[in-house]
Amino acid sequence: MNGASTYPTLVLVNGNVLGDDGRHEALAVSGARIAALGSTAAISALATAATETIDLAGRTVVPGLVDGHAHMDREGLKDLLPSLADCRSIEDIVGRIAEIARSRKPGEWIVTMPIGKPPGYENVLAGIAEGRFPDRHDLDRAAPDNPVYIRSIWGYWRSDLPLVSIANSAALRLAGIDAATVPPAPSIEICRDPRNGEPTGVFIEANKMPVVELSLMRRAPNFAPADRVTALAASMRAYNRAGTTSVFEGHGIAAEVLDAYRKVNMAGGQTVRASLVFSPPWASTSADDCRALLKSWGHWLAGRGLGDKWLGMAGLYGEIDNSVERTLRSAAFPQTGWAGFHYDSSLPRDALKAVLVEAARNGIRAVGILPNMLDLFAEVNETAPIAGQRWVLGHIVSLTPDQVRQVADLGLAVTTHLTAYIYKRGSELVEKLGSERAGEIVPLRSLREAGVPISFGSDNAPLSLFHSIGHAVNRRDKHGAVIAPEQALTRAEALECATRGGAALTFEEDDKGSIAVGRLADLAVLSDDPLTCMPDRIAGITADLTIVDGRVVHQR
User: Fold this and answer.
1) Which pick of 17, 150, 207, 388 has the fewest CB atoms within 10 Å?
2) pLDDT in tens, 187-208
């Protein structure tokens, strides 16, 4: 037994505990922290009448997973809107919307989830008997007295475009869309009746992040503040079911989502620790203003920032995106739809560089997720060294050997989205880069050997990090192709990325992300052992029991 503590509040016995120093049968928790590890007999001897005892019956215990790019707030939103998931024909859709309309007042909006089968919404038309999308006239039959809008998916739920959303005649009238309406961007198509040029109600867009709902169809209701609060609490429960106990929101957080976090936290309903990144809307602010802001009162963003172990904010998110689509999305501020982050966090490259230089001088970590941020980080480093600040580069798609060395030399941590870039797009990326460069696609082995801290991010597509662990080990895409197997990790290494690697994003790797005496008691009791189960079963692992801060927050 290691580090025995008196009077544990909780003990787990007869299990397979994957501790820092090897496997144990049992562990004891005192308050919020791990108090002891050892045999079942030794740990049981510490228990008192007031100690809660859980018999693991041989199940495996791992550190609670730390999602390095979660977008956790989205998950609960999916259950707020009426679902069309079971609809297999246009008549099914018409019937479902007609059913909804019977419970609504005339003139009240009806906004639904997208057509298709969640979570991926793949091959949508293959699941509709007529082989086409409904149009305004179909939806008019369903709800002649209500404006109806079928939302598009969030494009990263699947890897293929386009996105499709649909409005009925009443919704089009309220939105002011008619035969004369011009699409606001080349990536958007307003489908039209060839006989008269009138819109059919079907919108097609070549964007992963929807634009139509935040521009042409902005009149349709979006998520209200109370919706965000309800959804966030539900999201936390869903992530707990996957064994996730902490998240890092490296894409930044919009004000409406931050408000939801604060309300859930103050109500005592938080069951997932959240580390947020400051993501201000810069649109009406000059580069000089941004630098002055960081220099004058932005010191609170330095290091681990403000907050506690449940809810904190530190660091600064930035990106370079001057597209017309970003401008259109930004115009909907403060509403962000599915995104949950500010679209106005983008600045022109020179302006963003000036802001990041000021951040570096003040010890404020920067986070970027686009490939063009690596060179910008390197340029910033030439003026104001960032070594030791552990800036974060997310959504790693591919890195050359020289770029891997650059990431290591800059002292960056990386977050990786393996479901997108190995499972969904692996073969596509091999074709794009050439087979001789396949080893550059999410080069986990190269990054690890270079000493780069690696974390896994679910991107909420889907939410379980066990998909990422499985993809890191198996490196197999949805077509069955193996993508650069030399870049695979061992199971133990992959599990470490999903735990300690995520904790390293916030300098907390000595406090969580591993099982040792004195560490936070954030634990997941699993449905299978990720180190010994069949490789194809790793992605399907769930949590039978999840413990955060020493208390059970999920039990199957």
Assistant:
1) 388
2) 999 999 999 999 999 999 999 9
